[in-house]
Amino acid sequence: MVLEAGAEIDVVNSVGRTAAQMAAFVGQHDCVTVINNFFPREKLNYYTKPQGLDKEPKLPIKLAGPLHKIITTTNLHPVKVVLLVKENPLLAEVEAMQKCCKVLDLICEKCMKQREMNEVLAIKMHYISCIFKKCILFLEREDKLDGLIKSLLKGRERDGFPVYQEKTIRESIRKFPYCETTLLQQLVRNISPVEIGSDPTAFSVLTQAITGQIGFIDAEFCTTCGEKGADKRCSTCKMVIYCDQTCQKMHWFTHKKSCNMLKKIYEKQIVEAAKEKSKEAAQTAESTSTSEEQSSEPETHKDMDIKSTGDQSEMIPSIKMTVSSPAVCNFLEEETTSENIGNEKVQESEE
């Protein structure tokens, strides 16, 4: 609401930080994404009026609202973009899509030729324009946009990876007309060495570059449309996530081929996780018992020292008692008397 009311995103505060930088500093990544992907409606309304020698505007006023909604979206998943086109009958026509593509290309060119280049917005406009051109191709067919959605979702048989979707995104990046831009070179370096079907996917790299989202950490995303916050899983395999039942039905035609295989993988992961948990519990119990034994050993030695000291203290009085007992004294006196008597007898005999 603040952005739509005319708030400037480039204004800095007393410490020289923009709103997006402050939001990133405190961990509000969703706010950063919204700010970075905001495009003022006034800039789009410029194309709804005839300019110069034009007799009619480049963009009909009735298409400005639906197009602005797609431009400001933070979800760049190709299926989501096609669904946004499909839900608005004004956009889902060949002529309307052609005009929108022309306007998007003009915005992209303007972003690159202005004094302060906006590479992020330029690549985003080019990417949406490429998706619109795919829509034009399928609108001329019988199945129309439903056929495009199925093509984007269809996975290969061995693992269900959507190959056509990956190739579409890579093709849009490759067709970006300004090859010298730093952001494009970064995208190419990150995507080109990766085989189709491996991580990171072209969509994840493009999303990180445009929206600033660092991967898909601490969040679940819909397998069909890429919407954040999906919380519903396939009841059979528990491996695929959807945001609602509509997305699940849309994806079922290709997911049913790999559902049983994913179920086996999930069960295997559960068993391995249980084994790992029990192993960790055993190690924890063993370490706890070892620490208890080590802590009890000094106390045992201390008790032994006290006991031995006590034995010595008990022995000393017993010795004293033995020396000073009356029986022993009498015995010693008798021995002394007998020795004296013997000595006297020897002296008498000598005399």
TrEMBL record:
* Domain of life of the source: Eukaryota
Q: Does Membrane appear among the keywords?
A: no
* Segments of skewed composition (Low complexity): 281-293
User: Which cellular components does GO assign to this protein?
Assistant: cell projection
A molecular function GO annotation: zinc ion binding
Composition bias of kind Basic and acidic residues appears in 298-308
Against SUPFAM superfamilies, the record matches this protein to: HIT/MYND zinc finger-like
Subcellular localization is given as: Cell projection
What are the UniProt keywords, alphabetically?
ANK repeat, Cell projection, Metal-binding, Repeat, Zinc, Zinc-finger
Domain MYND-type, by residue range, is: 222-259
This chain belongs to which protein, by name?
A: MYND-type domain-containing protein
> Is Transcription included in the keywords of this UniProt record?
no
Q: Which InterPro entries match?
A: Ankyrin-MYND_dom_contain_2, Znf_MYND
Chief subcellular location equals other
Q: Which PROSITE patterns match?
A: ZF_MYND_1, ZF_MYND_2
Where is the stretch described as Disordered? 277-319, 331-351
